[in-house]
Amino acid sequence: MTAFPNPLFVALDTPDVAEATTMAAKVAEAAGGVKLGLEFFVANGPKGVREVSKASDDVPVFLDLKFHDIPNTVAGAIRSACAARPAIVNVHGAGGRDMMKAAVDASHDGAARHLVTRPLVLAVTVLTSMDQTDLSETGVSRSVSDQVLELALLARECGIDGVVCSAHEAAMLREACGPNFKLIVPGVRPAWSATNDQKRIMTPAEALHAGADILVVGRPITAAVEPTAAAHRVAQEIRHAQSGSL
Ligand SMILES: O=C(O)c1cc(=O)[nH]c(=O)n1[C@@H]1O[C@H](COP(=O)(O)O)[C@@H](O)[C@H]1O
């Protein structure tokens, strides 16, 4: 399975290839990868993704398109996404068993068809922008952590490589899903940054201690006055947490 020695992935949420490429270069030394999502992909497609990655020495890309559709459609989308050579792709766990199994199968097909390494397929559990009230309003009456656990266990049964969750659920999932199940954690906020629209947040050090494999950090770095300095500051916090000095 692909290993990510540097767990910091910087979210480049922009519709602009030049801006994404410039930001990727600014954070290249500090980050282990970048995340490109819907705002970027809808504007630029797989070619734009390749452009950004190639400009930064084939930096690993988490292609965050959060597919949620019937199994056949999601499978086709995953096969097509492989053309962009992502290291990681994702689907919504709430899409269910058949959809998640189809996504995993399609990641093998797509990788073979495009002659690329198979991307890890992750399942999004409960978005980090949602709290208990938001979840209840969607008709789910169980607690956020119970819902995250249920979806993660289902995802693991389907052969999914890991989940996107908040750091608040990371320790529970590490215990329930074992050491090889990837835990990708957005909603990471250093003590010095703004919360924005995120609700279930933790600092980089707290998230790593809770068991996160990858930390997705966007605006605290990309909206900083000095993005390079901000990325290095987060990377330093990560190194301190990894060495046990934080
Ligand atoms: O799948 C994701 O990456 C994701 C899942 C989730 O639950 N919460 C979440 O914030 N994200 C993404 O992670 C990034 C977080 O960005 P910042 O809030 O700017 O750090 C955004 O690009 C979101 O789309």
UniProtKB/TrEMBL annotation:
Gene3D superfamilies: Aldolase class I. Keywords: Decarboxylase, Lyase, Pyrimidine biosynthesis. It comes from Novispirillum itersonii. Signal peptide: none annotated. This is Orotidine 5'-phosphate decarboxylase. The lineage of its organism: Bacteria, Pseudomonadati, Pseudomonadota, Alphaproteobacteria, Rhodospirillales. InterPro entries: Aldolase_TIM (IPR013785), OMPdecase (IPR014732), OMPdecase_AS (IPR018089), OMPdecase_bac (IPR047596), OMPdeCOase_dom (IPR001754), RibuloseP-bd_barrel (IPR011060). Residues 7-234 form the Orotidine 5'-phosphate decarboxylase domain. One of its GO terms (cellular component) is cytosol. Pathway: Pyrimidine metabolism; UMP biosynthesis via de novo pathway; UMP from orotate: step 2/2. It catalyses: orotidine 5'-phosphate + H(+) = UMP + CO2. Catalyzes the decarboxylation of orotidine 5'-monophosphate (OMP) to uridine 5'-monophosphate (UMP). PROSITE patterns: OMPDECASE. The keyword Zinc does not apply. It is an enzyme of class 4 (lyase). Homodimer. SMART domains: OMPdecase. GO terms for biological process: 'de novo' pyrimidine nucleobase biosynthetic process; 'de novo' UMP biosynthetic process.
